[in-house]
Design a protein that fits this description.
Layout lengths: L25 H9 L12 H6 L3 H13 L3 E4 L2 E4 L1 H7 L11 H12 L6 H8 L5 E3 H15 L5 H15 L8 H4 L9 E3 L5 E4 L9 H15 L5 E3 H6 L4 H4 L4 H9 L1 H4 L4 E6 L2 E6 L5 H15 L1
Antiparallel strand pairs: 1-2, 3-5, 4-5, 6-8, 7-8
Helix pairs in contact: 7-8, 10-15
Length: 305
């Protein structure tokens, strides 16, 4: 299996969030701040406190998470919204106020499918063996990798990053604090506290709130990163390869196959599924329109509501 963490060119990051998890209101606030292009210091200036209604450290965290989420990018010496952000968060976009699960799934995909800005999340979802782990064990595995690869990160930095990862994804039952109520990614229920104190577990399964179009969008990005010019991917690659939809969304193999079987209809024939003599593959005829995939996802959700 391809492991980008073993690639010398891979960039990693264990900080930038200022110890804050991603919050519900941040994508829209950040989008509005950079809508027409903004200074690279927009989230660091003293005015950021008044602009965003949060402290400076939290504003810096807002920038970090929105860049990691694929919603903001640096271009031409300024900060700009990405095409994805404009499609979703514009006033007449697909989900301006982050009310649909599709937006949260997309956010999670960007955070956990590549290691460049959120290495701990990538490692946890794609490199940890099994489904159970504890924070100390996760930190030790990351520290071992850091020392092995010669990256720059201290034990304290990694410990804090693991803490933020868990606060981002684990819904704390019975907690009444504002911090426990707001983390955006915890809504997905991908990580939960295990019965053994101090342990956590990934929740694998079908993921009924994950739209097929978002799965297809993720598969397209995964294909671009790992498949190169290949016109086929196997069900096993899509399920188990690091950075794959199966690993990032914690889908079991049967759930992945069910999704792959629906691709022909979702992509209007751009991709097709075959199962011949035990060889289960998805074939790419041509590239699907990613915006169309997402529009269908949100449209179907709106119709269902």
């Amino acid at each position: 299996m391809r492991n980008v963490l073993q690639d010398q060119a891979t960039k990693v990051q264990f900080a930038g969030h200022e110890t804050f998890p991603l919050r519900l209101l941040w994508p829209k606030k950040a989008f509005e701040a950079v809508r027409g292009g903004a200074s690279l210091r927009t989230f660091q200036e003293h005015e950021a406190i008044a602009r965003f209604g949060v402290g400076r450290n939290m504003a810096v965290s807002m920038r970090h998470w929105n860049m990691a989420s694929g919603l903001i990018e640096e271009r031409g010496g300024q900060l700009w919204p990405t095409a994805l952000a404009s499609a979703i968060l514009d006033d007449d976009g697909l989900d301006p106020f982050v009310e649909h699960p599709a937006t949260i799934w997309l956010t999670h995909w960007h955070i956990a499918s590549t290691p460049e800005m959120t290495t701990t999340a990538y490692f946890a979802f794609n490199a940890l063996p099994g489904v159970d782990f504890d924070s100390e064990g996760l930190g030790s595995e990351l520290l071992r990798l850091v020392e092995e690869r010669g990256w720059r990160a201290t034990r304290v930095t990694i410990k804090r990053d693991v803490e933020v990862f868990l606060r981002s994804y684990v819904r704390r039952t019975g907690a009444l604090t504002e911090d426990a109520a707001e983390p955006l990614l915890a809504e997905l229920g991908l990580v939960r506290e295990a019965r053994i104190g101090g342990w956590f577990e990934f929740v694998r399964g079908p993921k009924p709130t994950l739209p097929d179009g978002v799965f297809a969008f993720a598969l397209d990005r995964f294909w671009q990163r790992t498949g190169g010019d290949s016109t086929t991917l196997t069900a096993e690659q899509v399920t188990y390869e690091p950075g794959s939809p199966g690993r990032v969304f914690k889908l079991d193999e049967d759930s992945v196959v069910t999704r792959l079987m629906a691709l022909d209809a979702i992509t209007d024939g751009s991709w097709t599924w075959t199962d011949t003599a035990g060889l289960r593959q998805v074939h790419r005829r041509h590239e699907p329109d990613w915006l169309d995939l997402l529009t269908r996802s949100y449209g179907r959700m709106a119709e269902a509501a």
